[in-house]
Each structure stands twice: as C-alpha cells, then as structure tokens.
Amino acid sequence: xxxVAVIEDAAAAEVSLDPVRARLLAELAEPASATMLSTRVGLxxxxxxxxxxxxxxxxxxxxxEERRKGNVTERMMRATAASYVISPxxxxxxxxxPARSPDRLSARWLLAVAGRLVRDVGLLITGAAKxxxxxxxxxxxxEVRFASAADRxxxxxxxxxxxxxxxxxxxxxTAGKGRRHRVVVAVHPSVPEES
Length: 195
Hints:
Blueprint: E1 2-7, H1 10-17, H2 19-27, H3 34-41, H4 45-57, E2 61-69, E3 72-79, E4 81-86, H5 107-131, H6 149-170
Helix pairs in contact: 2-4, 3-4
C-alpha cells in the first residue's frame, strides 16, 4: 500500500468521489471482505461487492487474498493507498494554468501553481512506478507568524531574493546531462487543523 496515490483518470476520480466508495476506501486501510465491510458500513454485502468491483476496476483497491468458505470464495480487498489526491489531469480540459493570470500575489494563482505541482508530481510518481525507480524530490514546510503586513511583505521580498540567488548560483543552462527541476515556494495563511 502506498502512503499517497495520485488519481489522474477522470473515471477513477468520479468513482472515488462517491460517498459510499470513499467510505469503503477509508475502511480498507486494512484488508477486509465484502461481508466484513457490509456490517461496518450498514449496506448489504451485494451492494458492497458492487462498489468494490468499481473501485477495483480503477485500481483503487486490490485483491490481497482469496479464502474458501464452504461453497463461497471470500475475497479480501485492501485500498491501494492510505490516501488519494485527485490530479488536475483528471479534468484536463479545465485544469488550472498559472500562465493564464501570473499574479504571484493572488491566491488563485497560488492555487493554479499548486495544481500544477500536484499534476507534475503525480505524473512523475506514475512514471517512476512503471520504471521501478524513485523520484528525486525535496519539500520544505514550515510556519511563521508575522507581526504585521509590512513584516510579511519584507519576508516575501527577502525570500524572493534568497531563492533567486540560489537559483542563479546552481542553474547551469549548458549542463548537457543536467535535468531541470521546478522550484515552488508558497506563503499563505495557515488553516487550523481539524481535530
């Protein structure tokens, strides 16, 4: 089971967004059969089986083992990931594009950049999995409390200068075997975590 999987297919995204199927995905962090799930979610086993087949068809759940119980074969299923992210690729025609309105102070532009980040990293994860390789990435996450809007603006200016300096120092346009990497830095108000 992957810690996170990226859903890139529109049909798989649609299947995962169904409330019953989303609940089944959550319940399948540990392997379970349709019979076991039916008691947990309060649905008939046949209906649970129907939803499991749809999830399995789109690679969101997988068969872990089959157990014979008399004349019946019980299928033990498990979610393929602990959590899922739907890539903007699933809505290709309307996925966000930061180039449409490049206002780096706009929350909507930040959301478009974040959407591109999810899309790009999702594609990298998919390609790396097929090639049985890892993806070289780095992420930095932190929180800062500003005393004033002026302090926030000064921070943004210093951060821009520092990142621009680092990019200029390490960027080598002539590196024939070099590989381009995208750098994304975002600053936004923190959202309280749900308890």
